């Protein structure tokens, strides 16, 4: 009996799905939109069948791509959800800030099921152009290789292509992305890495980094090796000078201490010798005195002044 029951439930589910699956497909448009701070954007949720009211047909959730936090978009309070056409509900976001960046999902509820759209990526940036900078650092204190980093801000990694130009050679290196900070308004940046060894560095005078965005636009930065040394070398020179000064200072202090110890040792030896000389002198004086007394006694005996 149990087997027949499960078969009937499976058959019923298949028949139900064959008649209703087309109504559970949600599409969103656009897939990606890049807007400036203070502007507006319209997100569309497209159903397979006609919808009567958008306020109960779809809800919207925003996913923070950095923290993974999912929050609801209050469409009732803002009155920014409307019916675009018979099958489309539109959500308009006004006066955007960087905190409004994220992935927006259209969600429709049917009984106890939730149907989720494919999502719309919203990127909110300020009006400034993307910026690019080059940094360099030694990988290890005794290493002959130098690592260069090309940092691109103001554009998300999916919109930027970063590459290096060393002489006439185009190098890609490896690229990573991260967030500017830990706040809700954090934005992504792109960082490209390139490692060059001594034999390569000796053959080039300039290292260029290029960042292409929006298909045709590009910015670049050039690092001239014949110019000022990278910051890491300045720090190494500074550290070397400090170490040399400390070594000289310690050497001078140790020399002074040793010299004072030597003077104290000599002084102690002199005092010891004087004491010994004084003891010897006292011994000689006593002997002389004893001898003088003996002579005087002998003379008195000879003169008859003293009885034998």
From TrEMBL:
- Tagged with keyword Ligase: no
Where in the sequence is the signal peptide annotated? Answer: 1-23
Q: Where does the Ig-like domain start and stop, copy by copy?
A: 38-106, 130-224
Q: What InterPro entries does the database record attribute to this sequence?
A: Ig-like_CS_Receptor (IPR051755), Ig-like_dom (IPR007110), Ig-like_dom_sf (IPR036179), Ig-like_fold (IPR013783), Ig_sub (IPR003599), Ig_V-set (IPR013106)
Keywords attached to this entry: Disulfide bond, Glycoprotein, Membrane, Signal, Transmembrane, Transmembrane helix
Q: What is one Pfam family matched by this protein?
A: V-set
* Keyword Glycoprotein part of the UniProt annotation: yes
Record's protein name: Ig-like domain-containing protein
């Amino acid at each position: 009996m149990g087997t027949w029951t499960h078969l009937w439930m499976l058959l019923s589910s298949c028949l139900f799905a064959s008649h209703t699956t087309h109504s559970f497909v949600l599409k969103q448009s656009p897939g990606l939109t890049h807007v400036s701070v203070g502007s507006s954007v319209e997100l569309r949720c497209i159903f397979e069948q006609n919808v009567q009211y958008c306020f109960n047909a779809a809800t919207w959730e925003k996913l923070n791509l950095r923290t993974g936090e999912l929050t609801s978009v209050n469409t009732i309070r803002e009155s920014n959800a409307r019916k675009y056409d018979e099958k489309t509900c539109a959500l308009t976001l006004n006066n955007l800030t960087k905190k409004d960046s994220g992935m927006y999902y259209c969600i429709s509820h049917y009984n106890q099921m939730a149907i989720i759209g494919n999502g719309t990526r919203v990127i909110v940036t300020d009006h400034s152009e993307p910026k690019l900078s080059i940094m360099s650092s030694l990988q290890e204190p005794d290493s002959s290789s130098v690592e260069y980093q090309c940092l691109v801000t103001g554009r998300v990694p999916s919109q930027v292509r970063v590459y290096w130009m060393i002489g006439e050679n185009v190098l890609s290196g490896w690229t990573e992305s991260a967030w500017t900070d830990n706040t809700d308004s954090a934005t992504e940046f792109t960082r490209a890495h390139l490692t060059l060894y001594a034999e390569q560095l000796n053959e080039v005078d300039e290292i260029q980094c290029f960042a292409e965005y929006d298909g045709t636009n590009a910015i670049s930065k050039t690092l001239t090796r014949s110019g000022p040394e990278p910051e890491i070398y300045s720090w190494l020179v500074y550290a070397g000078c400090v170490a040399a000064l400390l070594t000289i200072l310690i050497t001078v202090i140790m020399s002074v201490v040793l010299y004072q110890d030597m003077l104290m040792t000599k002084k102690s030896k002199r005092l010891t010798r004087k004491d010994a000389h004084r003891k010897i002198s006292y011994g000689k004086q006593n002997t002389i005195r004893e001898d003088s007394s003996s002579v005087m006694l002998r003379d008195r005996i000879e003169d008859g002044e003293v009885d034998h």
